[in-house]
Amino acid sequence: SGQVFTTEARRHRGSQRKTEEKLLPARPRLTMKIIRVMVLCCVALLGSVAVYAKDAPIQYKIRIDPADLTGFAVEMKIQRQRPGLLRVAMAVHPEYDDRYFRYIENFSASDPRGGQLTVGREEDTVWRIDNAPQQTHIRYRLRLPAQQWALRQSWKPFLTRDGGMVGDLHSLMYVVGEEKRRARLDLEMPADWTAASGLEPTSNPRSFTGSTELLLDSPIMIGKLKQWKFVAAGVPHSVVIWSASGQPTTDPKPILDGITQLVTQSIRAFGRPPYPRYAFLLQEGGQSALEHHTSLNVGLSLRLEDLFEEIAHEYIHVWNLMDVRPKQRVGIRYRFADPTGVLWWSEGATIMFSDLLIRRARISGESRSRIERLESLMARYFSSHGYSNQSAEKVSKGDSHPEILGDNSASTHLQGELLVTMLDLEIRSETENRRNATDVMRRLAERFDSERGMDNTDIERAIEEVCHCDKKQFFRDYIYGARVIDFNRYLQLIGLRSEVQTIPAVDDNGQSVVDLRIVPLSFESEGDFKVRIMNPESIWAKAGIRTGDTIISADEGKISTWQDFRGWLRRLKIGDTARLIISREGKTQTVEVPIKGFSRAVVRISELKEATARQLMLRKSWLNAN
Q1: What is the distance between the alpha carbons of residues 330 and 323, in angstroms, rounded to a whole number?
Q2: Which of 15, 33, 293, 392 lies at a C-alpha separation of 20 to 30 Å from 414?
Q3: What is the percent of the chain with per-residue pLDDT over 90, rounded to a whole number?
Q4: Each residue's pLDDT tens digit, 323-372
Q5: Looking at the predicted structure, is the pLDDT value of residue 520 above 80?
Q6: pLDDT exceeding 70 applies to what percent of the chain?
Q7: Contact, 532 vs 520, CB < 8 A?
């Protein structure tokens, strides 16, 4: 320390005076000794400062003022080894481009004495301080955007008088180049609020620690919370429910029982969990869900069966997407991630596993048999042209970049679930039912983690090693190519076959329904309202509208948002002629669209009359989710 250095210097100066008085001939020798001691002390001092600068965690604070719930203040205290350029950024989620950089206000930076530093903006998500000192204090405010939907999207921050959710990449910035650095987050909030998160707890219940990367992936639920805890495989888990006062609350018992069974079955299927702790963050008044490495957040607006499908899906993503992840999704970044071609596995296999494990856990979920579920999935597959002309790799990339698919629509979740289901049947057949798709997931988990991403060749190799069979043709046909899945080739392995018919789409009363296969290009768009064509055979595509076109007006009504367009669509009736003004590449044109119905596919799966004992054995195991 500096005090030690000063004491040592004073002592040696006293020795030097005594030497001058009594032992003048020895002065050079003692002087050199003094110099060496002083140099060592200086080195030790500087070294301790350097170590401190290197190892000191970034200090974050979120300050919530209950008198102003329109946003909250954020502080960052950053200690570095040397002064110079400092860049801080808001991370961008690789799938949901919520662009919360738009809501940052009053960004400032200062030195330890409070002197204001000059701040610049490199790009939308990056702030720059050219001559930042070793210790830099950053402050800003996040203004919470107005809620657009009747129900909140559960992964976005919000505040109410009873609490809310803060943190993660929607709230916190990071030092560019120091994504792995340790960090600490303190919460300043009303005294009767508590906090829950998947972050590492401290002795202070309002403080959490972890790497910067983990902080940016960990939402924090705050307020008047209800919490339950359990341990699985020696790992602590918590279930947290937030609800506003006076709001009807969901019965927690079936949720707690179901989550406990789901966790047990998942660990049994995939092995020891790749997290040190896990939090299920559930909120009343929310919708949808999102996965994180040590937590998930989900809205409680769904009926119980659908809720467990959401929870199972996001939870299993811990293994398949958060831990074993695409190469393009490794690390955090301040620019939208490049599209990845492996989501057919990351999403599709996850959905198949979710259904499988819900059945194994015997909790409320899918009420249909596996055959009935497969019929429904195949019907959706054959109802969209996108699956017959878009490879799984391309559809995967189109999940986050829909413009890639042009006027086709295809869900990587649906396509992937069907492809993995067919692979699962083939693996079972090739191994006499000793192996299945969960063994492929285990194999991938042995080789990859959040630091080392995978690609399609890695998935192919893992499948071949599990089943000891050649999968090159399967990948050429369906992953890299756009061949229609030959379902009967795989269904016959368990003594089944399918038939496909096309019928008019009707409502519950048997009346033809309007072709509404047109949606926003982005649900988070600002300014011009652009659309995406879902099917090249739709009435919209046949009228000449293309993906990426801007809708200016519809039947003389101005269109600015999805709410505007959706309200107009709902008023359409078969036999109408819609008149839209659109813009494409700077040119405006009028398009008339005759409003008609459309057709959809129906699939029926039946048993082969002469199924063998082996086929029946495989079918029974598959049907029972074994």
Answers
A1: 10
A2: 293
A3: 84
A4: 999 999 999 999 999 999 999 999 999 999 999 999 999 997 678 999 99
A5: yes
A6: 90
A7: yes
Confidence of residue 247 (pLDDT cuts 50, 70, 90): confident
378-382, Cβ contacts within 8 angstroms, sequence gap of 24 or more: 378/418, 378/487, 378/498, 378/500, 378/601, 378/603, 378/605, 379/600, 379/601, 379/602, 379/603, 380/411, 380/414, 380/601, 381/414, 381/415, 381/418, 381/485, 381/601, 382/500, 382/502, 382/601, 382/603
pLDDT at 128: 98
Which residues contact residue 502 at a Cβ distance below 8 angstroms, ignoring those fewer than 6 apart? 382, 599, 600, 601, 602
Give the separation between CA 93 and CA 612, rounded to whole angstroms: 50
Phi-psi region of 2 (alpha: psi -120 to 50; beta: other; left: phi over 0): alpha
Q: Are 199 and 215 in contact (CB under 8 A)?
A: yes
Best CA proximity match to 156, nearest among 568, 521, 167, 131: 167
Smallest Cα–Cα separation from 438: which of 407, 403, 466?
466
Residue with tokens 């958060």: 322
Phi–psi pair at 337, nearest 5 degrees = -65, 150
449 by DSSP, 3-state: which? strand
Residue whose entry in the numeric block shows the structure tokens 């250095």: 5
418 three-state secondary structure: helix
